[in-house]
């Protein structure tokens, strides 16, 4: 799928976000090497700490469906973020990207650019 089309999947997913506390809806989408697409959105909890980011929801959906390897992830937010860094994946999601996608996979961040997982998570932890 073209990155713009994958971005559109993420945009639709952002519309499904459950973000009543932050009011910051995020959408993500991942594509496997054989072209399967999985959307994700952030899902917040009244306990705050149980909130899960859009990126991890998308990655975990793909894993749960038995779909891998994942080669591309895209991230967007609904509406205009105040600054580009509010589109960048958090540290926890970067570790999960490294775990599940590997260092060479591509991450497109809407309006910011294209990265490898290794760009986002250099010197990341991996089990020996
Ligand atoms: N969030 C994501 O979904 N992805 C990110 O990369 C960073 C933050 C969510 C978590 C929370 O629901 C809201 O954005 C504000 O932090």
Give a description of the structure.
There is one protein chain. The protein is of the alpha+beta class and 128 residues long. It has four helices and five strands. A five-stranded mixed sheet has the order 2-1-3-4-5. Strand 4 (106-109) and strand 5 (113-116) form a beta hairpin. Helix 2 (54-64) runs parallel beside helix 3. The longest helix is centred in the N-terminal third of the chain and has 12 residues, at 3-14. The chain is globular. 36% of the residues are buried. The structure holds tetrahydrodeoxyuridine (THU).
At a glance:
The protein has helices at residues 3-14, 54-64, 91-101, 117-120, and strands spanning 26-32, 37-41, 70-77, 106-109, 113-116.
Q: DSSP helix count? A: 4
Q: Can you count the beta strands?
A: 5
Side by side, the strands of the main sheet go 2-1-3-4-5
What is the overall silhouette?
globular
Mean pLDDT rating: 94
Q: Which features would summarize this protein structure in a list?
A:
128 residues; alpha+beta; five-stranded mixed β-sheet; binds tetrahydrodeoxyuridine
Write the layout of secondary structure elements.
Layout lengths: L2 H12 L11 E7 L4 E5 L12 H11 L5 E8 L13 H11 L4 E4 L3 E4 H4 L8
Parallel strand pairs: 3-4
Antiparallel strand pairs: 1-2, 1-3, 4-5
Bound molecules: tetrahydrodeoxyuridine.
């Amino acid at each position: 799928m073209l990155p713009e089309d994958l971005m559109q999947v993420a945009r639709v997913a952002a519309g499904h976000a459950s973000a009543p506390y932050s009011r910051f809806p995020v959408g993500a989408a991942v594509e496997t090497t054989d072209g399967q697409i999985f959307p994700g959105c952030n899902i917040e909890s009244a306990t705050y700490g149980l909130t899960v980011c859009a990126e991890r929801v998308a990655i975990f959906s793909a894993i749960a469906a038995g779909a891998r390897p994942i080669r591309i992830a895209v991230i967007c937010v609904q509406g205009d973020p105040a600054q580009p860094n509010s589109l960048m994946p958090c540290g926890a999601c970067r570790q999960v990207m490294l775990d599940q996608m590997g260092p060479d996979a591509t991450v497109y961040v809407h309006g910011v650019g294209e990265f490898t997982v290794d760009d986002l998570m250099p010197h990341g932890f991996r089990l020996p």
